[in-house]
Amino acid sequence: MSMEAFFFRLFFLFFIQTVGCNIFAQGLETLPPIRLDAGSKPSEGNLIISVSDFEKFFKNGGCRYADCIEIIDAAKPWPPIWFSAAPLFRADTISKQATLNLITNFSYQSGLYSFYKEQALLKGDIAHHKIDFTNKHVISANYVICSPTLKVLETLKPSRLPFNFHCMAINDKKERLVMLQLDTVLAIKTPDNPLKKPIAALIDVIAIYDSTDKVIFKWNPVKALGLEAVNPLYIHAPSASVSGDKVDWSHGNSIVWDLDGNILYSFRHIGVGKISRADGHVIWRLDNKSIYTDNRKDTLVFYLQHDIEPVNEEGDYTRYSLFSNGDFAHPKAFGLDFKANNKDGSIKFIRKRYSTCNLPSTGAGNYEVDEHGNYILNYGVTPDGSDKPSHTFCEMAQSDGHVFASYSLPKNVFAFKISKLKAPPVTRPMVSRKGNVLSAHGNMTGWIWYRLENDNSVIKVAQGLDFKPGINGTYYVAGKVGMGYAVSEPFLFNQ
Residues 262, 317: one domain? Predict the structure, then answer.
């Protein structure tokens, strides 16, 4: 297998089994959250992180951890303040068929959280860890909207076309910006299809649901950008959204409300751009096959990008951030800053931020910049062939590029997206002791007790409000909040 084929395959596997994978079947036990550690002087504030365990793909024998979404104290990342629940499947009791319950990705706008939730029938020889994640029948897929305290408020269901699972954005009017997946046939010229024979394709249609869940806007990128907008180098890239001979024409991976209320998009196989909320006309666009250059001072380029975000307004311009994963010919990842003129749509390059990680990023990742120029650079999926038990996956830096904090995850565990929160959405539960009995306190239910092992792993030891430890050690309690659990500070128990 060629290097580029390996990277595309890895990217494919990542999106098939992305953040928050839950497998429900007989004999399940709730897994603890994935451990995060600060590699240098940590930052202040709180971070929300989606993490995915790749152990199941790199080794036979399943995963050591569960995929999940975590909210952490940046200065003290372990244990997390909150994590989405994920159960462990036991090979000795599970059957050859199970239900896949996927909670993938997150967004946080206008004071609300949203999570994509999918249920699918999964088949395979699960007892021997031979699961075909591509062979699934989707039962239901929707977005779950949560309050600032992570209380589930409502579920947004697709009207006809299925949702793209990457993201949903909410504005102050409670309008929901989504991508709908449309199966179609395109007569497009590619290197292996010079005669433009019709081929099966998937395109991502941008849509807006109002606060009553009525579709009030639709935008078809084939009609607006043109059939030939797709980069011919990427059109046949493996994708979790398609199977067989179908091509993923756009591969939408980011949509967001711009600061002026219009719409930003990122189509991984095409590029990024801005469209009018009123009538859908293209305000500006940057296609990755024919990129813009700024007065020849530097080249504004990106490859298989993720996560476009508005940063702030600067006079006639709006500043944006973008994460470039790189491709087989340009393997190094970087964060990209650029700005667009709000009057004429002209683009100006600002800077690139290369990561201190020298490994290629084959999928996911993001680059978040605040109004002062300080930033978070999440490397995405960076396979590491070393024997180290953990790896740095994220760095935080000042506007001058000085890295003041970094964070690590266990080997083969990676982050899809990281974002900074102004305040934690929930309060940690408390632990008290009376004699040799530990008790949990907090406005929560479904209490689960964990113990920290000598190898820094965490195991479940009990359920219920009260717990009597059998041995000395460090314990945590987790209580049900919304779609996950809030976690206490560590409690040291000695008899």
Answer: yes
Same domain, 463 and 383: no
Instruction: Indicate whether 421 and 439 sit together in one domain.
Output: no
Distance CA 94, CA 130 (A): 13
Backbone angles phi, psi at 74, to 5 degrees: -60, -30
What are 147-160's pLDDT values in tens digits?
999 999 999 988 88
Do 243 and 330 lie in a common domain?
A: yes
- The CATH number that applies at residue 153 is 2.120.10
* Spatial distance between the Cα atoms of 248 and 245, rounded to a whole number of angstroms: 10
Domain count along the chain: 2
Q: Where are the beta strands (DSSP E) in 20-111?
A: 21-24, 29-30, 37-38, 46-53, 68-73, 82-84, 87-88, 97-109
Give per-residue pLDDT as tens, 58-84: 444 444 445 678 898 888 888 889 988
- Of 78, 169, 43, give the one whose Cα is nearest residue 116: 169
For 329-368, give the secondary structure using H, E and C. CECCCEEEEEEEECCCCCEEEEEEEECCCCCCCCCCCEEE
DSSP string for 433-493: EETTEEEEESS-EEEEEEEE-TTS-EEEEEESSEE--SS-EEEEEEEEETTEEEEPPPEEE
Q: Which domain holds residue 489?
A: 432-493
CA distance 247 to 237: 8
Q: Which phi and psi angles does 408 have, rounded to 5°?
A: -125, 155
pTM (2 d.p.): 0.85
CB of 62 within 8 A of CB of 54? no
Alpha-carbon distances of 37 from 83, 130, 166, 410, 486, rounded to whole Å: 15, 31, 26, 9, 18
Same domain for 204 and 242?
yes
**205 shares a domain with 149:** yes
Taking a C-beta distance cutoff of 8 angstroms, is the pair 378, 13 a contact? no
